[in-house]
Write a structure and sequence with these properties.
Shape: extended
Structural class: mainly alpha
Strand content: under 5%
Distance between the termini: 41 Å
Number of helices: 3
Helix content: 40-55%
Largest sheet: none
Number of strands: 0
Protein backbone atom coordinates (compact mmCIF):
# COMPACT_ATOMS: atom_id res chain seq x y z
CA UNK A 1 0.00 0.00 0.00
CA UNK A 2 1.32 3.42 -0.95
CA UNK A 3 1.18 6.33 1.45
CA UNK A 4 1.22 6.21 5.21
CA UNK A 5 -1.28 6.34 8.06
CA UNK A 6 -1.80 10.08 7.56
CA UNK A 7 -2.06 10.00 3.77
CA UNK A 8 -3.84 6.90 2.49
CA UNK A 9 -3.42 5.92 -1.13
CA UNK A 10 -6.31 6.63 -3.48
CA UNK A 11 -7.68 4.24 -6.03
CA UNK A 12 -7.20 5.28 -9.67
CA UNK A 13 -10.90 6.21 -9.87
CA UNK A 14 -10.71 8.33 -6.71
CA UNK A 15 -7.51 9.98 -7.94
CA UNK A 16 -9.25 10.92 -11.23
CA UNK A 17 -12.16 12.54 -9.36
CA UNK A 18 -9.75 14.33 -7.01
CA UNK A 19 -7.64 15.68 -9.88
CA UNK A 20 -10.71 16.83 -11.84
CA UNK A 21 -12.06 18.63 -8.77
CA UNK A 22 -8.70 20.28 -8.17
CA UNK A 23 -8.73 21.70 -11.73
CA UNK A 24 -12.21 23.18 -11.12
CA UNK A 25 -10.96 24.65 -7.82
CA UNK A 26 -7.94 26.20 -9.55
CA UNK A 27 -10.12 27.74 -12.26
CA UNK A 28 -12.48 29.21 -9.67
CA UNK A 29 -9.65 30.73 -7.62
CA UNK A 30 -8.25 32.40 -10.75
CA UNK A 31 -11.47 34.47 -10.92
CA UNK A 32 -11.71 37.92 -9.33
CA UNK A 33 -13.69 37.90 -6.09
CA UNK A 34 -13.19 34.17 -5.41
CA UNK A 35 -13.86 33.16 -1.81
CA UNK A 36 -10.81 31.54 -0.20
CA UNK A 37 -12.95 28.92 1.57
CA UNK A 38 -15.53 28.35 -1.18
CA UNK A 39 -17.59 25.18 -1.17
CA UNK A 40 -18.67 23.38 -4.32
CA UNK A 41 -22.05 25.15 -3.98
CA UNK A 42 -20.28 28.54 -3.84
CA UNK A 43 -18.30 27.69 -6.96
CA UNK A 44 -21.45 26.63 -8.81
CA UNK A 45 -23.26 29.79 -7.67
CA UNK A 46 -20.38 31.97 -8.88
CA UNK A 47 -20.47 30.58 -12.42
CA UNK A 48 -24.14 29.64 -12.84
CA UNK A 49 -25.82 32.52 -11.03
CA UNK A 50 -29.41 32.58 -9.82
CA UNK A 51 -32.83 33.08 -11.34
CA UNK A 52 -34.92 36.04 -10.11
CA UNK A 53 -36.90 33.81 -7.73
CA UNK A 54 -33.72 32.53 -6.06
CA UNK A 55 -33.12 29.14 -7.65
CA UNK A 56 -29.71 28.44 -9.16
CA UNK A 57 -29.53 28.46 -12.94
CA UNK A 58 -29.17 24.93 -14.31
CA UNK A 59 -26.17 25.78 -16.50
CA UNK A 60 -23.46 28.35 -17.09
CA UNK A 61 -22.45 30.22 -20.21
CA UNK A 62 -18.78 29.85 -19.28
CA UNK A 63 -17.36 27.10 -21.49
CA UNK A 64 -14.30 26.39 -19.33
CA UNK A 65 -16.41 26.04 -16.18
CA UNK A 66 -18.92 23.79 -17.96
CA UNK A 67 -16.14 21.47 -19.11
CA UNK A 68 -14.46 21.44 -15.71
CA UNK A 69 -17.63 20.88 -13.68
CA UNK A 70 -18.51 17.84 -15.80
CA UNK A 71 -15.09 16.26 -15.37
CA UNK A 72 -15.45 15.07 -11.74
CA UNK A 73 -18.82 13.55 -12.53
CA UNK A 74 -17.47 11.78 -15.61
CA UNK A 75 -14.42 10.59 -13.68
CA UNK A 76 -16.59 9.20 -10.91
CA UNK A 77 -18.45 6.98 -13.37
CA UNK A 78 -15.71 4.75 -14.78
CA UNK A 79 -18.18 2.08 -15.86
CA UNK A 80 -21.24 3.92 -17.22
CA UNK A 81 -22.62 0.82 -18.98
CA UNK A 82 -22.24 -1.49 -16.00
CA UNK A 83 -25.43 -2.40 -14.19
CA UNK A 84 -25.26 -1.56 -10.48
CA UNK A 85 -25.56 -4.49 -8.08
CA UNK A 86 -28.94 -4.96 -6.40
CA UNK A 87 -29.26 -3.33 -3.00
CA UNK A 88 -31.22 -6.19 -1.51
CA UNK A 89 -31.22 -9.81 -2.53
CA UNK A 90 -34.62 -11.20 -3.39
CA UNK A 91 -35.82 -13.84 -0.98
CA UNK A 92 -37.70 -16.89 -2.27
Amino acid sequence: MRGNARTPALSPEARAVFDAGRELWRHYHAQPGALPDASFYDIRAHFQGFKPHGHMNPASGAATYTALVGAPRAASEPYPDAEPPPLLAAED
